[in-house]
Amino acid sequence: MSDNTLMRRFPSSGYLEQQAAARLPNFVFDYLQGGSGRQCSLGRNMAAFEQVTLTPRCFNDCQEVDLGTTLFGRHYRLPFGIAPIGLDGLIWPRTVEFLAQAARQAGCPVTASTFATSSLEEVARLAGEMAWFQLYPFSDGAIEQDIMARAGAAGYQVLMVTVDVPVGGRRELDMRNGLSLPPRLGGRVLLDMMRHPVWTLSHARRGPPGFKNLQPYRRHSNDYLPAKIAGRVPWARLVQYRQRWPGRLLVKGVLRAEDALRCRELGIDGIVISNHGGRQLDSCPSTLGVLPDIRRAVGNDFPLIIDSGLRSGLDVARAIAQGADFALLGRTFMYGVAALGQVGAGHAIDMLSDELENAMQMMGCPDIAGLKRWHTGSTAQSGYIKGAGE
Ligand SMILES: Cc1cc2nc3c(=O)[nH]c(=O)nc-3n(C[C@H](O)[C@H](O)[C@H](O)COP(=O)(O)O)c2cc1C
């Protein structure tokens, strides 16, 4: 399919999601799309974006729009990137590898999860300087030391520590589906797989996905690797990460202004305001809802990255206008690859860029700096706080 045909057939995330739902077995689609509990956080995240209005400045001439932005002293061609997704290979074989290649080409970051099904070394090789690494805290300090050393040796400059998984969220769909790795091949799962032959064949060719980053630490065949994750991150542990990681350090999963301030005081380079895409505590506020408060608390110079609930380039514009410096998306990219295979990775980036450019042209906003100073309609407060931290 040419790029034009792709854009015509899949002009937005919803169409990719539909196609993904048709191609993936139900237990796999549920793993990707679902949230925890009654999925209130999941719904709230997306609803919050829909409520933000952006009033155009019609008389600004804005044919040319510059989507580039600087974060951590590095220029990115786009103000958004790819969030870490564990068990990506269950959704489609080699997903994170396809995303890494597409991200490098587009000039936006891609985050390799601790639980990726390709090795962190392979993702770094494919993504080059666009590669970020996401770390879950390990209960075994030696493993954690080793994985951080491997990330440094592979060339990662940005380490993102996830702090919102002290315990796993209750994902009821996964519980009911009996999600496991490798999939337990009961009658229902087998039937589900037979009804989705393209997915099943692609996995038959590749073999079952595994947690590649953790495999060197497997001591015996029954060693359940995710059990090596500690989950909780007390402040003292964050201090240790800061001492041990010489590159940029991000904390993912912050939702409170006082926690953001403390992170800044500890020398953390930025935070990802995230509720894990509505997959953890099901009564979390939407990330967009807490963003203005956090921005007010930390001032304009502390990098704030947002995720959870963005489904379009327009949502990226809304997030930046509300005070974010940068955005990450998870499911949207996964829908791209699930729907279309490798070309879906590049298409998802093109689609989001196109949506963002189109929105900014209509707003009369020439660049990302202008977007940060835009006034949004959801709250009285615009993202850029005059006087805060200037
Ligand atoms: C299937 C799936 C797996 C995920 N795995 C991880 C992970 O391994 N590490 C992590 O920090 N976040 C993980 N997340 C959360 C994402 O990084 C991100 O916060 C979330 O997807 C953003 O919300 P969105 O999907 O609405 O864009 C996962 C999310 C999904 C949907």
Can you put this structure into words, describing what you see?
It contains 18 helices and ten strands. The protein is of the alpha/beta class and 390 residues long. The protein has a single domain, classed as Aldolase class I (TIM Barrel, Alpha-Beta Barrel). Helix 2 packs across helix 16 and helix 6 runs parallel beside helix 7. The radius of gyration is 20 Å and the shape is globular. The site of flavin mononucleotide has 23 residues, from helix 3 and helix 16.
Topology of helices and strands:
Layout: H1 3-9, H2 13-23, H3 26-33, H4 40-51, E1 69-71, E2 74-76, E3 80-82, H5 88-91, H6 95-106, E4 110-112, H7 120-127, E5 131-135, H8 141-154, E6 158-162, H9 172-177, H10 187-194, H11 197-206, H12 235-244, E7 248-254, H13 257-265, E8 270-273, H14 287-298, E9 304-306, H15 313-321, E10 326-329, H16 331-340, H17 342-363, H18 368-372
Parallel strand pairs: 3-10, 4-5, 5-6, 6-7, 7-8, 8-9, 9-10
Antiparallel strand pairs: 1-2
Helix pairs in contact: 2-16, 6-7, 6-17, 13-14, 15-17, 16-17
Flavin mononucleotide binds at residues 31-32, 83-86, 113, 115, 134, 162, 252, 274, 276-277, 279, 307-310, 329-332.
Put simply, the count of helices is 18
Weakly predicted, low-confidence segments:
379-383
Strand order of the largest sheet: 3-10-9-8-7-6-5-4
Percent range for β-strand residues = 5-15%
Cofactors, ions, other ligands: flavin mononucleotide
Question: What is the SS-derived class?
Answer: alpha/beta
What sequence of helices (H) and strands (E) makes up the elements?
Answer: HHHHEEEHHEHEHEHHHHEHEHEHEHHH
Task: Give the strand tally.
Answer: 10
* CATH fold-level topology: TIM Barrel
Distance between the termini: 49 Å
The overall pLDDT, averaged over residues, is 93
Percent helix among the residues?
40-55%
Using the 3D structure, state the CATH architecture.
Answer: Alpha-Beta Barrel
Envelope shape: globular
Largest sheet: 8 strands, parallel
